[in-house]
Amino acid sequence: MQPLALDATLTDLQRYVADMETERGFTSHSVHEQTWRLMEEAGELARAVRKNNGHRSQDGDLVGSIDEELADILIFACSIANRLDINLTQAIRDKEAFNETRTWH
C-alpha cells in the first residue's frame, strides 16, 4: 500500500482508510463495532491530554501521544463514513453552511 501523500485531502484520506482496511482484513467490522472503537480512541485521547497537562494516569495505563490518538479518531471517523457512504468533505461543507445560520454569542 502506498503511503498517504503529504498533501492528501479528506477524500484521499477516506480512500486510504478504505484501502488500508481491505489490506488488513478489517472490512467485516460493522458500523456499530467501529463506533465503539472510535469511542475507545476518544477515551485514549482524553488520557493523553490529561497526561500532557501534567496529570498522572492510572497505574499501568499505556498512554499514547495526542497526535497518535487524534489520528486514530480520524481513521475511525473515515471508516464509519465509508461504511455509510458519507463523503466527509461534503458533510463538513453542509454542516458549516448550517452553522453559518446560527447565532453563537
Compose a concise summary of this entry.
This protein has four helices and no strands. Helix 1 (10-24) crosses helix 3 (66-83) and helix 2 (31-52) packs antiparallel against helix 3 (66-83). It has helices at residues 10-24, 31-52, 66-83, 88-99.
Please provide a written account of the structure:
- This is Pyrophosphohydrolase.
- This protein has a single domain, classed as Orthogonal Bundle (Helix Hairpins).
- It is built from 4 helices and no strands.
- The longest helix has 22 residues.
- The radius of gyration is 16 Å and the shape is globular.
- 10% of the residues are buried.
Q: Could you name the CATH class? A: Mainly Alpha
Shape verdict: globular
CATH superfamily: MazG-like
N-to-C CA distance: 47 Å
- The residue-averaged pLDDT reads 93
Our estimate of the beta-strand percent is: under 5%
CATH fold-type name: Helix Hairpins
- The CATH architecture category equals Orthogonal Bundle
Largest sheet: none
Instruction: State the helicity in percent bands.
Output: 55-70%
Q: What structural class do the secondary elements suggest?
A: mainly alpha
Number of helices: 4
What is the number of domains? Answer: 1
Rg, Cα atoms, Å:
16 Å
Domain NTP pyrophosphohydrolase MazG-like: 36-93
InterPro entries: MazG-like_dom, MazG-related_YvdC
Pfam family, one: MazG
Protein name: Pyrophosphohydrolase
